[in-house]
Amino acid sequence: MFNIVKKIFGSKNERYLKSLRPLVERINSLEEEISSLSDEQLQSRVQAWKEEAAAGASLDDLLPHVFAVVREASHRVLGMRHFDVQLIGGIVLHQGRIAEMKTGEGKTVVATLPVVLNALTGRGVHIVTVNDYLARRDAEWMGRLYNFLGLDVGVVVHGMSDEDRRQAYAADITYGTNNEFGFDYLRDHMKFYAYQLVQRDLQFAIVDEVDCILIDEARTPLIISGPADISVDLYARMNSMVPKLKKDEHFNIDEKAKTVTLTEEGVHRVENILGLENLYDPENITYQHHVLQALKAHHLFGRDSEYIVKDGQVIIVDEFTGRLMPGRRFGDGLHQALEAKEGVKVEAENQTLASITFQNYFRLYDKLAGMTGTADTEAVEFKEIYNLDVSVIPTHKPMIREDLPDVVYKTQQEKFNAIADDLLELHSRGQPVLVGTTSIEKSEHLSKLLNKREVPHEVLNAKHHEREAEIVARAGEMGRVTLATNMAGRGTDIVLGEGVRELGGLHILGTERHESRRIDNQLRGRAGRQGDPGSSRFYLALDDSLLRLFGSERITGMMDKLGMEDGQPIENNMISRAIENAQTKVEAHNFNIRKQLLDFDDVMNQQRTVIYTQRRELMHAEKLEDYVLDMIQDVLDDVYSPVGESTPDSLEDEEERSMLMGRLEEIFNIKRLLPEVESPEKEKTLNAVHAHLEQLKADAGDQYEEVLRFFLLESLDRNWKEHLLQMDHLKQGIGLRGYGQRDPKREYKREGYELFEELLFRIKENVVRALCRLRIRKKEEVEGFRHKEQEDLRYGAPQKGEEKKEAKKEPQRRAEPKVGRNDPCTCGSGKKYKKCCG
């Protein structure tokens, strides 16, 4: 029934595209009028629209004329005129959707249409790419068009100064990578003054390769870290233990979930080696955690697969793009475990200072859109997580690429020998081949096999990426064989060389199926661009990771029925379908991982939103005294809650009275503010604190508000950092609540809320404590102290007979209360005096 309805009325996507046709016809009807305008007239129209948009004109009303002008300007400046299907793509992006467009359909040019339209608001448009090379390339290439229309372009890449970033973000259009945009957002929320901020409000972003950024990379949150108090010797100690533990006897590995668990025998073995009585004692939780991380480093993470070692450093290889990720580190001590495993310098483990997931960062934009060649398989996730609909845009010319059935072998060795033999044959007849591998290790293994057969070839992986653009651009020339990890395929078109079309175009050869169908489709999409001929085929083995871990027994059963002999491949559409089903299972599994990460981060996101909103207010507010007075009142109400408006003496319990007076001294420095009163009531304390603030205001003069701003932000940042550490610890152990029949997510939300409530009060308490101990010295006093110190240095210690005299003078000169080494420091840091200013 569903298929019948679909045939009569068309699919949802077809109906949506049909609704855009009148808009495309309207744009086309303006072409003759627009093409008759001079360059200056085109530019003046854009400036006029900017003024209209600023006055509140609807962008939807301006769309037909703006798109017509951009198409004409593109034709004049770039020599490229937008096709009708590209106009449709531009409308889809403007409407805040994802446009799925096949490789070679000109996504970069499509983006210029909605970019110019939305840049008219003056609030900035961000174009997000997967690497710095593409950001620079597109900013320079498309920048010619934008500059022609009177719009300025900025680009944000790694290594730029804050001033350069600020200028880039102030431009009408800003290119950059997802990492740079996300980290700039976090860094901005760690700055003290409004003039230091680099980003503006987040209005509209178009994400290129949207599936890579919003799906694949969404499992790894962005984290800014600082050093934590864990000795690096611990990692070496754990690393030396790994050879003493045997797989299946002392620990079990789950390759699907990428987890390691100790057996009961393994727990006893670890306890004996470390000399512990109980590994699961809360005091020993650090050992338990790092033993498991060391085992993961040795048994689940491989050199030249998940990471490489270069210049004495362990550098992550991106699972989905095959690119190196310098500066990024695995969390929870795993990176340190890998460094210990590889015998390089172990860097200190870091503590989270600020973090956000890509999901929650990109949901901050008022409007979000994306482009990719492969999004439809993840349409449900895009809708559920980002509220983004996927629209499949038809190709300008029919797709004629031939996707051949998979070929399946029994073992890796048989498969790679067959691949090398087939590559020799393809090369000898002149057909260019792009070979997709899943790791650096496998690309280098295949390279050795081709060298034995004397097949000339290029290798493109994270170790040899400097010539990426050149290698990929020439991959369509006659006789070329290019071995590449997943990195070859993003952003650079493979143009067919002379005579290649007659040979069947570019052939894509996959050495195994990836966990995600999208990655396979991206590889296939390198061939058959713009109506070119091409073909693709995947070579598989029964011991490939995907088939071994996720392939059902059904596939093995099929093999047995079909009768496989050594070296004999099986080519069968039923096998291909069964493999796709295995991929669907993995995609669902990975979606659950991303969903769980988001569920936990949503709790943090609510807290982050409150803290960051409050932080922005404090940075921009001109008058902060009201904030401080409210804090003083809240803290005072809490301290006096046992007695209300009475004095501490009204408490009958001596211990309670002592605790109350202790809090008054600890927070309000009461003995100094009210030295003559032994047991002050609430109003007297409040008046004393207000009088102290008035004195600070008089002493600080014009700088009073900045003094308040400093203590407010310093307390907020320090306590937020400690709160993040507490939340990390809570998340690490929350899964165990499931054994007690309690929902870990609900428990995390409940306990996280309680910790957050404590955080908000602790911030207030710290601000009040610091301000009540603050004294501002006049410049002349400071100069006098400096002069005295210089005299002491010049003339040395006082002569005999003067010592007692000087000793008596010193307390008067300092005029500060005596502080015990274990008392809170007078600077207001919250630390003990001996660990701070002492």
Would you give an account of this structure?
With 838 residues, the protein is an alpha/beta fold. It has 4 domains: 9-219 and 360-392, 3-Layer(aba) Sandwich (Rossmann fold); 229-348, SecA, preprotein cross-linking domain (Pre-protein croslinking domain of SecA, Alpha-Beta Complex), CATH 3.90.1440.10; 402-590, Rossmann fold (3-Layer(aba) Sandwich), CATH 3.40.50; 621-712 and 763-773. It is 53% helix and 11% strand. It is built from 33 helices and 21 strands. Strands 14, 15, 16, 17, 18, 19, 20 and 21 form an 8-stranded mixed β-sheet that branches. Helix 22 links the parallel strand 19 and strand 20. Helix 26 (625-639) packs across helix 31. The longest helix has 48 residues, at 573-620. It is globular, with a radius of gyration of 33 Å.
List strands and helices in order, with pairings.
Layout: H1 2-9, H2 12-29, H3 31-35, H4 39-54, H5 59-77, H6 84-94, E1 98-100, H7 107-110, H8 112-119, E2 125-129, H9 132-148, E3 153-156, H10 162-170, E4 173-177, H11 178-188, E5 204-208, H12 210-214, E6 222-227, H13 233-241, E7 251-254, E8 259-262, H14 264-274, H15 285-299, E9 307-310, E10 313-316, H16 334-342, E11 350-356, H17 358-362, E12 367-372, H18 379-386, E13 390-392, E14 402-403, E15 407-409, H19 412-429, E16 433-436, H20 440-452, E17 458-460, H21 468-473, E18 481-484, E19 506-510, H22 517-524, E20 534-541, H23 545-550, H24 553-562, E21 570-571, H25 573-620, H26 625-639, H27 654-668, H28 670-673, H29 682-700, H30 704-734, H31 744-773, H32 779-795, H33 803-814
Parallel strand pairs: 1-12, 1-13, 2-4, 2-5, 3-4, 5-12, 14-20, 15-20, 16-18, 16-19, 17-18, 19-20
Antiparallel strand pairs: 6-11, 7-8, 9-10, 15-21
Helix pairs in contact: 2-5, 2-6, 4-5, 5-8, 6-8, 13-15, 13-16, 15-16, 25-30, 25-31, 26-29, 26-31, 30-31
